[in-house]
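Anyone up for a design puzzle?
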C-alpha cells in the first residue's frame, strides 16, 4: 500500500491583463528538481487544510491580495494532474486552480524570485506546468464566452473599452467595438453605471462602470467570429 501513497499539492495559474496582453505569475525555483527554472506558484496541502484553503493561502502569499480565508479576485479549481513521472521526487498529485486578478504590481518578496510574464512568451516551465498553464488559459478563454469573468480582470471601475481589451488580450483577437459595446451594455446585470466618467483624455469622456451581479451571459459571446452572439 505504501507504494500507492501520494503527496498532494496545489499549483496556481494566476492570470492578469496588463498592457493589453495576458500575463501569468511565475516563480523561479531555488531548489531541486528544476532549480533555476520558472514554474507556477503553489505548495503542498497542510494536514489541516482543504484544497481551496491551500490555494487561497498560496495566492495571498504570492500576490499580497486578500487575507487568510478571504481571497481578492476570482479563484476556481481547474483540474488534477497525477502522471507517475510528473515529479522526479515521487508520486505527487497536484490539483491546479485558476485565479484571475486585475493588473497589479510585480510581487515584492525578498526571498522569492517571482513576477508577471506574458503568456505568449512562456516556453519551458518546471514539471508539467506548461500543460497546466495551457489548460488554465484555455479555461479562461472558454469561460469568457458564457460568463462575466472578464470583469474580474478589471479594476473596481472601468470603461467598456477597458473590458473589450480584456477579451482581446485573452482571446488574442480583435473585436468590433460597436458590437461589443451593444452586447455588454444590454446584458442585464453585467455592468452597472457609476455615473462617473473618465476625464482628462481626448474626445468624449468615457462612462465608468462596475461589475454587476450577473454571472452568466445570455446569450453567449463566442470567440469565432469575434463577438458572435448565439441564442
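Challenge accepted. My sequence:
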Amino acid at each position: 500500500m505504501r507504494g500507492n501513497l501520494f503527496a498532494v499539492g496545489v499549483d496556481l495559474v494566476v492570470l492578469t491583463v496588463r498592457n493589453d496582453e495576458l500575463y501569468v505569475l511565475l516563480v523561479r525555483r531555488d531548489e531541486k528538481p528544476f532549480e533555476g527554472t520558472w514554474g507556477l506558484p503553489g505548495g503542498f496541502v497542510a494536514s489541516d487544510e482543504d484544497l481551496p484553503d491551500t490555494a487561497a493561502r498560496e495566492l495571498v502569499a504570492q500576490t499580497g491580495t486578500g487575507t487568510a480565508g478571504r481571497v481578492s479576485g476570482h479563484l476556481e479549481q481547474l483540474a488534477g494532474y497525477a502522471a507517475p513521472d510528473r515529479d522526479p521526487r515521487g508520486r505527487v498529485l497536484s490539483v491546479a486552480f485558476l485565479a484571475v486578478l486585475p493588473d497589479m504590481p510585480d510581487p515584492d518578496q525578498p526571498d522569492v524570485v517571482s513576477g508577471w510574464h506574458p503568456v505568449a512568451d512562456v516556453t519551458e516551465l518546471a514539471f508539467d506546468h506548461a500543460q497546466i498553464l495551457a489548460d488554465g488559459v484555455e479555461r479562461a478563454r472558454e469561460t469568457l464566452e458564457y460568463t462575466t469573468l472578464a470583469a474580474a480582470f478589471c479594476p473596481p471601475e472601468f470603461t467598456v473599452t477597458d473590458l473589450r481589451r480584456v477579451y482581446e488580450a485573452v482571446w488574442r483577437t480583435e473585436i468590433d467595438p460597436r458590437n461589443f459595446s451593444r452586447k455588454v451594455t444590454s446584458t442585464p446585470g453585467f455592468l452597472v453605471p457609476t455615473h462617473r466618467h473618465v476625464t482628462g483624455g481626448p474626445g468624449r469622456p468615457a462612462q465608468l462602470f462596475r461589475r454587476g451581479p450577473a454571472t452568466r451571459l445570455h446569450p453567449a459571446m463566442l470567440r469565432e467570429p469575434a463577438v458572435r452572439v448565439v441564442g
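A detail worth pointing out: Residues 129-146 form the longest helix (18 residues).
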